[in-house]
Specification:
Blueprint lengths: L10 E11 L2 H11 L7 E8 L3 H11 L2 E3 L12 E5 L5 H16 L1 E8 L3 E3 L4 H11 L3 E10 L14 H10 L18 E3 L6 E5 H6 L12 H10 L4 E12 L8 H18 L5 H20 L2
Parallel strand pairs: 1-2, 1-5, 2-4, 3-4, 7-10
Antiparallel strand pairs: 5-9, 6-10, 7-9, 8-10
Helix pairs in contact: 5-9, 8-9
């Protein structure tokens, strides 16, 4: 599938998309300290969510970015950093899609990096390392590095999908699993094909990302990477973990209160299992009920 790009546009290797939500100081730190670690052959866009025009202008000025109030407007092609203003909170998927579309429309970008603003790059030449698997295997279209939390735990990769029935078991018996998180992360330092990598820092081949339909905009938050991996797999493409790259993930302030986070996670999980993993509506309904019952059981046993 071709993409509409203006003639005589600048060709750059990497396009960086950073979605931010009420994180003025974090994004300034990211632009000043992390972006320079990624080299010169890139163009970046900050997607400023849930922000009025005035605050977005101030943030753009502080970052040295070109302020773009209208994502469809013409922009100077010699600039390397832009800031898009959105008055609503688009969430992870829609926000990254808007940034990716903006970059691919105005530049010829071979790879798209989706990055949180609460990370610290710890590896030199990290983007080159993430490109390496894609150059070696043309079926690989998404790669991710080691992502380590402040607690030292690996947050990526996820090698296999988790069945809905296991999720139901975890929901009901989670209060018995006090010493171990419910996770599909298996620590290893060997590169390899995996099910999905964390979207906190993830590189995708631009054409493949666009052809796969980008992130699913029916999901506001959570499960976006799993769904993207399913969309890629439908085209015979793969995700790969590349531990030669490493980032530290600070886990910034949440976008919603905890009750809303649970609601968003449940909604996105139900959408994922129903529409991408092929579970029946009845099975998804049982999962929904098990989550509610599991919270009650946890409360009773706390």
């Amino acid at each position: 599938m071709g993409r509409a790009v203006a003639e005589h546009v600048l060709i750059v290797k990497y396009g960086v998309v950073i979605v931010t939500y009420h994180s003025f100081e974090r994004i300034i730190r990211y632009v000043r300290e992390e972006l320079p670690k990624m080299g010169d052959d890139l163009v970046a866009v900050i997607v400023d969510n849930d922000a009025d025009v005035g605050s977005s202008r101030r943030l753009a000025d502080a970052c040295g970015a070109v302020f773009v109030p209208d994502a469809e407007a013409e922009v100077p092609r010699d600039a390397r950093l832009f800031l898009l203003n959105f008055k609503e909170n688009l969430g992870y998927g829609r926000g990254n899609n808007r940034g990716a579309s903006f970059l691919s429309r105005n530049f010829r970008v071979r790879y798209l990096l989706f990055s949180n603003d609460d990370i610290e790059v710890e590896s030199p030449d990290i983007l080159a390392e993430l490109c390496r698997p894609m150059l070696q295997d043309r079926q690989i279209k998404v790669t991710g590095p080691q992502i380590v939390g402040l607690d030292g735990a690996q947050q990526s990769p996820h090698w296999k999908p988790i069945s809905l029935y296991r999720e139901i078991g975890w929901s009901l018996l989670g209060f018995l699993r006090k010493k171990r998180k419910n996770t599909s992360v298996v620590p290893t330092l060997h590169a390899g094909i995996c099910y999905w990598v964390s979207g906190a820092f993830m590189l995708a081949e631009t054409d493949a990302f666009l052809d796969a339909g980008q992130f699913d905009e029916k999901v506001f938050l959570y499960n976006e990477e799993k769904i993207l991996s399913e969309r890629l797999a439908r085209r015979g493409w793969k995700c790969c973990w590349q531990p030669a790259g490493k980032v530290l993930h600070y886990e910034g302030a949440s976008t919603q209160p905890s009750v809303d986070k649970r609601r968003l996670l449940l909604a996105s999980s139900c959408h994922y299992y129903r529409h991408y993993r092929g579970y029946s509506a009845a099975a998804v309904w049982i999962y929904r009920i098990s989550c509610r019952l599991g919270r009650w059981l946890k409360w009773r046993n706390s």
